[in-house]
Amino acid sequence: MKRGRLVVISGPSGAGKSSICQRLLEMPELNAQLSVSATTRSPRPGEIDGVHYRFITPEEFDTLEESGGLLESAEVFADRYGTPQEGVDEALINGKTVLLDIDVQGARTLREKGIEGLYYFIAPPSLETLEKRLRDRKTEGPMSLSRRLAAVKIEMSAQDEYDHTFVNDDLERVSGEIRAAILAFKPSERGDPEQGEVP
Ligand code: 5GP
Fold this sequence. Notes:
Layout: E1 5-10, H1 17-25, E2 32-34, E3 38-39, E4 54-55, H2 58-66, E5 70-76, E6 79-84, H3 85-93, E7 97-101, H4 104-112, E8 118-123, H5 127-137, H6 142-156, E9 164-167, H7 171-184
Parallel strand pairs: 1-7, 1-8, 2-7, 3-4, 8-9
Antiparallel strand pairs: 3-6, 5-6
Helix pairs in contact: 1-7
This protein binds guanosine-5'-monophosphate.
C-alpha cells in the first residue's frame, strides 16, 4: 500500500480550519482522517471525548508526553495540546491523508523534526471578519476570546513559514483548492511503511 500524506493546517482561531477539515473529510478521493489531539482544555458544549479531542488532565498529559507518545505538543491559549504519535503513524501506513489541525508552534516542531508533509496556513479575509466569526460562534468566554484575538497577529506573522496560504473567503472554493493541492502531492518513499514511524 502507498504511504499516506501528512497535511498540516494552521491559522488563527476563527479562520475556519475546522470547517475546512470537515469538508476535506467528506471527499472520498482524499481518504482523509483527522488526527485527534490530546488537550488539557475543557470540552465545549457538544464536543465529544475521543472525537474532537482526547480531553485529559495536565498529569495525564505529562505522562503521555514523557512516554514519547506525542509527535509534537504546544501550549496554546494557556492550555496544552499535542498530537498522538501512534494514530498518525498508523494512518499513514494505511495510506490515509492525515490532517493535523495544529498551531504554528506545533507546525514548527514538525518542520524542525524534518517531517515531510504539506504545510498550509489558513488566513481570514480580514481581521474584522475573523473577529466577527469568533464572536458570533460564541464558543469562548470573554477571557478566552480576548486571548485568541490577541494571538491573531502573532499567528498571522508565521504564515511565510508555510508552503501556501489559503485565504478562507469561500469555504467551498478554498476546500476545493486544498483538495487539488493534496492530490497533486506525491510523498517521497522516505517513510518506509514496514518501519511504521513518521520519518
Ligand atoms: P481550540 O481550543 O480552538 O480547539 O484550538 C486552539 C488551537 O490549538 C488551534 O489553533 C488548534 O489548531 C491548536 N491545536 C489543536 N490541537 C493541537 C495539537 O495537537 N498541537 C498543537 N500544537 N496545536 C493544536
